[in-house]
Write a structure and sequence with these properties.
Layout: E1 2-9, H1 14-27, E2 31-37, E3 46-54, E4 67-72, E5 87-96, E6 105-106, E7 111-115, H2 117-125, H3 131-141, H4 146-156, H5 160-174, E8 178-181, E9 183-184, H6 186-193, E10 222-226, H7 236-240, E11 246-249, E12 252-255, H8 265-269, E13 275-279
Parallel strand pairs: 1-4, 4-5, 5-7, 6-9
Antiparallel strand pairs: 1-3, 2-3, 7-8, 10-13, 11-12
Length: about 280
Amino acid sequence: MYEMIFHGRGGQGALLAARVLANAFFFDGKHIEAFPHFGAERRGAPVRAFLRIDDRPIRSKTPILSADCIMVMDASLLNFVDITNELKEGGLILLNTPLKPEEIELPARYRIATCNASEIALKAIGKDIPNSAMLGAFSCAVPLSKEALCKGFKEIFSSREAAQKNMEMAETAANTTYLDFSSVSAKAKEKQASKRPQVEIGGTFKANGSSRHNLTGSWTIYEAVVDPGKCNFCLLCYTLCPEGSILKNGKEIKIDKDYCKGCGICEKVCPLKAIRRQRKIK
């Protein structure tokens, strides 16, 4: 049996990726089982999905605790989730990042495939929905026929145009995926051993003052930037920010980047266009 865990954030299509891949393997003649694990269904919050593939009927209905492959759709999740604890010996980590495998620092040497899936999605559809590109990267790292993956997309997307667009992203990713081993870092080992709070599914911590630990600024690839020369301190942004991420500093506005989710509300309500949303520099 081949088992997979999908880690992503709400809105990135982790569950949809599991469904597409399940259909692809079904058309390849395999028995499959795919299901999600949700906490709070909130855009940007950590979500998880599971997929089992076998030549025989699958009887197990429990969450996967140890996987052959872990697909991570947002590299920032590595700061909150110890994915290496979920991986079988010799397993594969598939990571959405512009970095090459040897540039990824982990506490031990792991087989890893990297793909800049977010960039592919942004160029193709203008949104950071990397799931289809990640499936293309998977097909590059693990044997899966292009025909089966194409059927998987067509089964999920009723629009032929949408299925074709997603297949194109997958093909681009398959041609730009790097497969190698991660580097071993003492810093990563120290980080793994630390007693820093670990985020749960749904982005919640069960502790007093837990919201301070939930750094929602990691939930997005965008951030708000203030132009102090244009700002007249009207405080519309301060009033309407849903996360309380806009701070008053004397007669200036500051952005708390630990909690800013880059939703763009401040940009839309600012009468002088003193705030804009931009892509984070990684």
